[in-house]
Design brief:
The chain is 38% helix and 25% strand. With 504 residues, the chain is of the alpha+beta class. It folds into three domains: 286 residues, BirA Bifunctional Protein, domain 2 (2-Layer Sandwich), CATH 3.30.930; 96 residues, no CATH class; 92 residues, Rossmann fold. A seven-stranded mixed β-sheet has the order 3-9-10-16-13-12-11, with helices on both faces. The protein has a five-stranded mixed β-sheet with strand order 20-19-21-22-23, with helices on both faces. A three-stranded antiparallel β-sheet has the order 5-4-6. It starts with a helix and ends with a helix.
């Protein structure tokens, strides 16, 4: 029975892996995503967005930007990537932005400590914990091991706590084999690894000229809090939104676009009175998950994952993740945090400048609490791409289709002359010229019409407009809908308004 269960689990994992492989293959074939510097063997953890990918990413960011800033209580900004190094001291990144790392002495592979745990199945974890507890019996580590192993926590939580405990972590590692080479007892002692990229400003590489590529966009918002507030004359509560690149020197990149070294964040920091923090934390939780649903993401593949109090970040009073069910499991696509007044207070302390808000009504100065919504543009891109991917049987053939919401679709409409004669190409080109100022369109005249439809299905194009024989006689065209594959005719002079209505 146990063997059968393992076979089922293995089959499910293979199926999930196949989905990711198919999406990655489609992404390259149709020009969504390419491996960075591919002709040189690629650069791990870095990706290039191709013609369709850059459009999809742009559309996601535009929808987010409209959602956030087309309201009276949120302003936009774009802070510099390079900031004064004291910013990162104040935020705690210089001291605390680290991951524990181990190396395999045999094959020289490097692993994040938590990633090691993810790669081990439950039955193996049980054996590792049992052999570890036996090995530390009679030592000063026995009580630590027993206290963690005998809690009511799940097996995974116990294993994670043992790995994270600096007093017993190395002893546990002695019972874990390297995932790459299989060597047992080959790991170095865990050591902290700062995730920030360090560089220098000016001609001299000295500690006086150190700067960092920002690991998050939030700090640029915090240091500009009063600048934006005064310039825009905003009153609490109000927010500041920003979209921008961030950089993290990840030990292990994985799962396509999910964990990369260069990525984009879509962040909004909402400043509130301390007594209103819970109200607005819940308010933004509800709004943000509905945003993903409004753009067509499957509701049954979205959930909140509330952080337990003992695992909250040092600055947080409360935190939750909006998670999407990827083929490899649930993964965070947006974080929502109650950051309290930590950030503004720290920047006030380190800069010596007041970061307090003056309330005109009460005549009081206060340090606002901050409700943060932080979405990964790259992760959202990946989630929307996977969510849209579908295979179905049509007339005995497999149709691959990307069912993007029309507002996200990279190409809004494809213009297809049925044949390359009888004035059909000229008519099709006129339609293309009429539509192009208003939307991204694609002209395709090569191949059988069915094959052209399939190509557009794979690109996620919601509408194909076919110029055919009837067009020449009555100025109507055939509109084919991607999702239903239904076709209908419409007058050429009504086509633009018809499509614009569909994209609202």
């Amino acid at each position: 029975m146990q063997k059968q269960r393992r076979c089922i689990i293995a089959k499910q994992k293979n199926q999930r892996s196949e989905i990711v492989e198919k999406v990655v293959s489609l992404a390259k074939r149709r020009g969504f995503v390419f491996q960075s510097s591919e002709i040189y063997g690629g650069l791990n953890g870095c990706w290039d967005y191709g013609p369709l990918g850059v459009e999809l990413l742009k559309n996601i960011k535009e929808e987010w930007w409209k959602f956030m800033t087309y309201r009276e209580d949120v302003e936009g900004q774009d802070a510099s990537i390079l900031m004064h190094p004291r910013v990162w001291e104040a935020s705690g990144h210089v001291e605390n932005f680290t991951d524990p790392m181990v190396d395999c002495k045999q094959c020289k592979s490097r692993f994040r400590l938590d990633v090691l745990g993810e790669a081990i199945n439950d039955s193996k974890k049980e054996k590792i914990i049992a052999s570890f507890i036996e090995a530390v019996k009679g030592s000063n580590k026995e009580s630590i091991a027993d206290n963690i192993a005998n809690t009511d926590s799940s097996l995974n939580e116990k294993f994670e706590k043992l790995l994270e405990n600096s007093k017993v972590s190395f002893d546990l590692l002695a019972h874990i084999s390297c995932p790459n080479c299989g060597t047992n007892n080959s790991f170095t002692e865990p050591r902290k690894f700062n995730l920030m990229f360090k560089t220098f400003v000016g001609p001299v590489e000295s500690e006086d000229n150190v700067v960092y590529l920002r690991p998050e966009t939030a700090q640029g918002i915090f240091v500009n809090f009063l600048n934006v507030q005064v310039a825009s004359r905003q009153k609490l509560p109000f927010g500041i939104a920003q979209i921008g690149k961030a950089f993290r020197n990840e030990i292990n990149t994985k799962n396509f676009l999910f964990r990369t070294r260069e990525f984009e964040q879509m962040e909004m920091q909402y400043f509130v009175k301390p007594e209103d923090d819970v109200k607005f934390y819940n308010y933004w939780k509800g709004l943000r998950i509905e945003w993903f649903k409004s753009l067509g993401m499957s509701s049954d593949k979205l959930r909140f994952h509330d952080h337990p109090k003992e695992k909250l970040a040092h600055y947080a009073k409360d935190a939750t993740d909006i998670e999407y069910l990827f083929p490899f499991g649930w993964g965070e696509i947006e974080g929502i945090h109650n950051r309290t007044n930590f950030d503004l207070s720290r920047h006030e302390e380190y800069s010596g400048k007041s970061m307090k808000y003056f309330d005109e009504e009460t005549k009081e100065k206060l340090t606002p609490y901050i409700i943060e919504t932080s979405a990964g543009a790259s992760r959202s891109f990946m989630a929307f791409l996977i969510d849209a991917y579908e295979e179905e049987e049509v007339n005995g053939e497999t149709r691959v289709v990307l069912r993007f919401h029309p507002r996200l679709a990279p190409i809004k409409a494809a213009i297809l002359p049925l044949v390359n004669r009888d004035n059909m190409p000229e008519t099709a080109r006129k339609i293309e010229a009429d539509l192009r100022p208003f939307m991204r369109v694609f002209y395709d005249s090569k191949g059988a019409i069915g094959r052209r439809y399939r190509r557009q299905d794979e690109a996620g194009t919601p509408y194909c407009i076919t110029v055919d024989t009837q067009t020449l006689s009555d100025n109507t065209v055939t509109v084919r809908e991607r999702d239903s594959m239904e076709q209908y005719r419409i007058e050429m002079d009504k086509l633009l308004m018809h499509l614009m209505e569909k994209f609202r």
